[in-house]
Amino acid sequence: MSADGTPLSFPTSLGTSSSDEIRLLGQDLTADLMGKVGFGELAFWLVALRRPTPSETRVFEAVLVALADHGFTPTAIAARLTYLSAPDSLQGALAAGLLGGGSRFLGVTEDCGMFLHAVLAGVDGPHPTDDQGWDALALEAVRSARAAGRLVPGLGHPVHKDGDPRTPVLIGIAEEEGLRGPHLRLFEAVGRMHEQVLGRRLPLNGAGVCGAALADLGLPVELLRGFALLARAAGLLGQIAEERRRPIGMAAYLAVDRNAVYVDPETD
Fold it and tell me: What pLDDT score was predicted for residue 5?
């Protein structure tokens, strides 16, 4: 009971349970969801509070696959080294990897989605209907970002200098499913126009295109980093499993530690 004597009530549209039933999203978990709803579909539903269409599910799960693992990234190395240090703490190793999801790795998904969303929100009138209109909008957006001293998220990649292979594939899937919306179209236009402002051509990276695709699905742009982390959690679990089978954590640690060189701070 509350202080005034009324029954306590904590509203939720997600999960509740009783002695003989578990309900999730208004559904009977065991009768309506288990074995009938995929995990990606459920993750979308939990955030959007609506069940995605098959087309939306395909695009959404393509994003999750695109972001799951990218080799020995800093997030993967952090997870492996934490597991090396504390093999009794699987949750610590996973958390260490996820905590590295910031402005350079994984966070670009959210940053790009928010950038594109802000540009579109500032459009006075209907969105462009052809490439020429999208190009003009993108050019102005890049110029404004440059003038403000801000980076344009979604441009460049430390490995895929000549083009991120994920980008055209995800755009193609969205096109096939009729979900190539304004965020993706603006992102593509940024790819065409940024060189005029920045003076060099950079690839549209996979994290950025994932942010654009998720925004076109109507998911909250403030939560897009969460979907990147959801995807990477699976990849990190795979990295830790491989660390158990074929460890490299100790070698990575020793390579750095045994090659550390003292530098006098006064002469650095």
Answer: 74
- Among 103-112, 141-150, 181-190, 214-223, the least confident range: 103-112
Are residues 232 and 138 part of one domain? yes
Quick check: 1 pLDDT over 60?
no
What gap in Å lies between CA 67 and CA 125, rounded to an integer? Answer: 34
Note down the domain range covering 118: 37-250
For the chain, what is the mean pLDDT?
94
H helix count then E strand count, the chain: 11, 3
Same domain, 140 and 232: yes
CATH number at residue 79: 1.10.230.10
C-alpha–C-alpha distance, residues 261 and 263, integer Å: 6
Q: Do 185 and 70 share a structural domain?
A: yes
Structure tokens at 77: 């190395």
Helix 90-99, helix 224-245: angle, nearest 10? 130
pLDDT of residue 2: 67
Q: Whole-angstrom Cα distance, residue 219 to residue 8?
A: 31
Check whether residue 56 and residue 102 sit in a common domain. yes
Residue 60 sits in the same domain as residue 74? yes
DSSP string across 113-154: HHHHHHHHHT-SSSPP-SHHHHHHHHHHHHHHHHHTT---TT
Residue 149 in domain: yes
Taking the complete model, does pTM exceed 0.70, yes or no?
A: yes
Same domain, 197 and 103: yes
**pLDDT tens column, 48-60:** 999 999 999 999 9
What is the distance between the alpha carbons of residues 70 and 109, in angstroms, rounded to a whole number?
14
Biggest CA pair distance of the chain? 71
CA angle 55, 185, 228 (to 5 degrees): 60
Residue 264 lies in a domain: no
